[in-house]
Design a protein that fits this description.
722 residues; alpha/beta; GIY-YIG endonuclease; Rossmann fold; 7-stranded parallel β-sheet; 32% helix; 24% strand; binds adenosine-5'-diphosphate; binds zinc ion
């Protein structure tokens, strides 16, 4: 009797055994009885043994796939990752699949039909649809071959189908191999020596594993290097995966990829429907696309013939998943490259200290671009001492004066403030009551335009009270300022200037960002206000002044990575000033002009900052010179979570004596969130393997304890915020 050991998407560290009475292979999906229902699972192992009585095992109902679902590389990666992150294999495998596949849809192309024009649809006069403007628009998009899938709902397609103007077809496979007529459009750009060196080094790598760090200041031509390297890989018929922190913020980069290559490029973004997501997955597995550009989870897309991985802005913390399975997409991408034996290129103006350390140890090969491409020069940077100055919505008079000067030269100004909303506090003027989120015990942020209070910790919101619940006063006032208030103040100061605010509140609506970007690209006096998403990747040639409104929060955080993050954001933001031919200026407002970190950053730059900070981390034995795992626990009554962690602490102390360093249990930096009380225990060890082994031992015991079922707990391997 053959036994299939099946991984199911349940939060338990175990496989489930079934009798295997039909032919099946490892890696195929199966339908199995599970409790009172049926579930989709994946076969992980087949043998003749079970810890349970074989005769009592239920049989597999049917086999969903004809061939293993994942490619060999992705299969190996996911199995490795489940064990490294100590996360249940079933959850990991299912996380990596498009939702339709989790539900048991076939992984074949019949599942992803495409719309195409009928003969009538090609010929009909568009104006005959004037009374149905959406149908008209869709038909014209189909005719022009522009992207239509995210803009129209199904009903519109059906209307056109009823009129026999469009029909559904299964996408033809392998007929038009993109490889057959691949070409890269020529450009007038002549690479400089450093760029050429980077390109030749990667070309010479000849499709073997190797990690390369392309460290290039903003505007030094990294994207141009990517494009040149890709030309070589694509012309060999191989596919490429490009991971970026956030798709909606990189339209210009994607446009450059599309313009350069005569090859199918798929973009994996959050606006896709599940069907489109599956379609991209299948195209990639069949080798029908040349490039995928996507965020974090695009890493798990199977490729028929992957030739290279690029991680743009490798330092960005959005590559780390912050809930559920807390993987780091950059780290996993490196493992994938190793498994697939292909090169991987990490690009950044401000590499993470982990990556820089690996480059210093020659584990990664460092490629540097130290000059700005073309004729652009670096911006002049200065500190503005706020002590004793009067501020309006955070702006000091000297900064306002500079803004005025730059605008009058018909240039653009960018103001950076990492706090959205109108103000971070709403307070009762008579008794001091503060409007707080009851689920997090944290102040609500006041959003004036939306007329609501919103909790930035749990995303809940409520209407603005008209009266103080404590004393009945109606005198409630906003304290402090965020981007919304800054924008409003600027409108008063500069009534004739266009202002665009770019933060999560304004760009979440589709198309808004594109609109803004277009207006900004048109040039002319203009002010941009935004949070750190402004810092990511945009190319604004007319911005000559960057003002950093408030940095002090970042300088005095209890998280040892806060300074690294600030240095990265600062460097990225200030890199936005003065690209191309215009000289730029950066002004940083602070109450702590003598802070040593600011001094190093401003006078010596990110590289020197990184060097000094790495030395500090070495002396204090912090990552990357040690390895951490954070065990989090939360409960509603604030009793079991600390008990559970104390149990772990004591158990480790008694059973493990390998110089394990434990901090805690302590309350989390944010002790309450969405109704849960949060605690944590930090484990640190100088050896990664030993720490892994300790976690293995812990896991086999932890699930037997009584407290374990009473708390929400998780292990975060290589945590990036504590
Ligand atoms: P990064 O990705 O490092 O920010 P880009 O590749 O976007 O830099 O390059 C910045 C600008 O400089 C772009 O407009 C690009 O076309 C241009 N550029 C890049 N390399 C060169 C070069 N060798 N000569 C002239 N212009 C270049
Ligand atoms: Zn009051
Ligand atoms: Zn809350």
């Amino acid at each position: 009797m053959l036994i299939a050991h099946v991984a199911l998407p349940v939060p338990i560290h175990q496989l489930f055994d079934y009798q295997l009475v039909v032919p099946a292979e490892i890696g195929m999906r199966v339908r199995v009885p599970f409790g009172k229902r049926q579930a989709i699972g994946i076969i992980v192992k087949i043998d003749q043994q079970s810890d349970l009585n074989i005769n009592n095992l239920k049989s597999i109902i049917d086999v969903v796939d004809q061939t293993p679902l994942f490619t060999d590389s992705i299969w190996k990666l996911l199995n490795w990752a489940a064990s490294y992150y100590h996360y249940p294999l079933g959850e990991v495998l299912f996380h990596a699949m498009p939702i339709l596949l989790r539900q048991g849809r076939q992984a074949t192309k019949d599942e992803v039909k495409q719309w195409q024009l009928t003969k009538l649809g090609h010929e009909i006069d568009l104006n005959s649809l004037s009374r149905a403007p959406k149908q008209k628009l869709l038909l014209s998009s189909l005719r022009n071959n522009t992207d239509h899938q995210t803009d129209f709902n199904k009903a519109i397609y059906c209307e056109l189908q009823k009129k026999h103007l469009i029909e559904q077809i299964v996408e033809p496979s392998d007929i038009n191999l993109w490889q057959n007529d691949f070409s890269a459009n020529t450009t007038s750009i002549k690479l400089n020596d450093q760029q050429s060196y980077a390109v030749t080094t990667l070309n010479k790598q000849n499709n073997h594993f190797g990690v390369f760090l392309l460290e290039g200041i903003t505007g030094s031509g990294k994207t141009e290097v990517y494009l040149n390297i890709l030309t070589d890989i694509l012309s060999k018929g191989k596919q490429v995966l490009v991971l970026v922190p956030e798709i909606s913020l990189t339209p210009q980069t994607i446009k450059r990829f599309k313009q350069r290559f005569n090859a199918p490029i798929d973009i994996l973004h959050s606006g896709l429907t599940e069907k489109q997501r599956l379609a991209v997955w299948l195209r990639s597995k069949n080798g029908d696309n040349a490039i995928i550009v996507g965020t974090r989870s695009a890493l798990f897309t199977p490729f028929k013939n992957l030739g290279m991985i690029i991680i743009d802005e490798e330092h960005d913390s959005s590559f780390k998943q912050q809930e559920g399975w807390r993987y780091h997409a950059r780290d996993l991408a490196i493992t994938l490259a190793k498994i697939a034996n292909i090169p991987i290129l990490l690009g950044s103006a401000t590499p993470s200290l982990e990556t820089l350390n690996n480059a210093q140890n020659n584990k990664y090969q460092l490629l540097q671009l130290t000059e700005r491409a073309g004729s652009a020069t670096l911006a002049k940077q200065s500190i503005l001492d706020l002590r004793g100055l009067v501020l309006t919505a955070g702006l000091s008079y000297p900064l306002i004066k500079q803004i005025r000067k730059h605008l009058s030269n018909n240039n653009q100004v960018m103001l950076f403030l990492n706090r959205r909303g109108f103000s971070p506090l709403l307070i009762c003027h008579d008794c001091g009551w503060i409007a707080e989120c009851p689920r997090c015990d944290r102040p609500y942020t006041y959003h004036q335009k939306q007329q609501k209070l919103s909790c930035h910790h749990c995303d809940s919101s409520r209407i603005i009270p008209t009266q103080c619940p404590k004393c009945g006063s109606s005198h409630l006032i906003p304290i402090g300022f965020g981007t919304e208030q800054l924008e409003k103040q600027l409108e008063i100061l500069f009534p004739n200037i266009q202002i665009s605010r770019i933060d999560r509140d304004t760009v979440s609506k589709k198309g808004v960002l594109d609109d803004y970007l277009q207006k900004i690209q048109q040039g002319g006096a203009h002010i941009l206000v935004g949070t750190q998403i402004l810092a990511k990747g945009h190319h604004f040639p007319d911005v000559t002044l960057v003002g950093i409104v408030d940095v002090d929060g970042a300088l005095f955080s209890s998280d040892f990575r806060a300074t690294e993050r600030f240095a990265q954001i600062y460097t990225q933001v200030s890199g936005r000033a003065g690209r191309e031919t215009k000289a730029g200026e950066v002004i940083l407002q602070t109450y702590h002009p003598d802070h040593p970190l600011l001094k190093i950053l401003l006078t010596k730059g990110y590289q020197e900052f990184a060097k000094v900070t790495l030395q500090e981390r070495r002396q204090t034995q912090l990552p990357p010179f040690s390895y951490q795992a954070l065990i989090r626990a939360a409960d509603r009554n604030n009793q079991y979570a600390p008990m559970f962690l104390q149990h772990i602490h004591d158990w480790l102390k008694k059973n493990v004596n390998h110089n394990l360093w434990q901090v805690g249990p302590t309350q989390a930096i944010q002790p309450k969130k969405a109704g849960y009380n949060r605690w944590q225990l930090l484990l640190q060890h100088s050896n990664r393997q030993i720490l892994q082994h300790i976690l293995d031992q812990l896991l086999t015991n932890i699930e037997k304890w009584v407290e374990t079922s009473k708390v929400r707990w998780s292990i975060d391997v290589d945590p990036i915020d504590l």
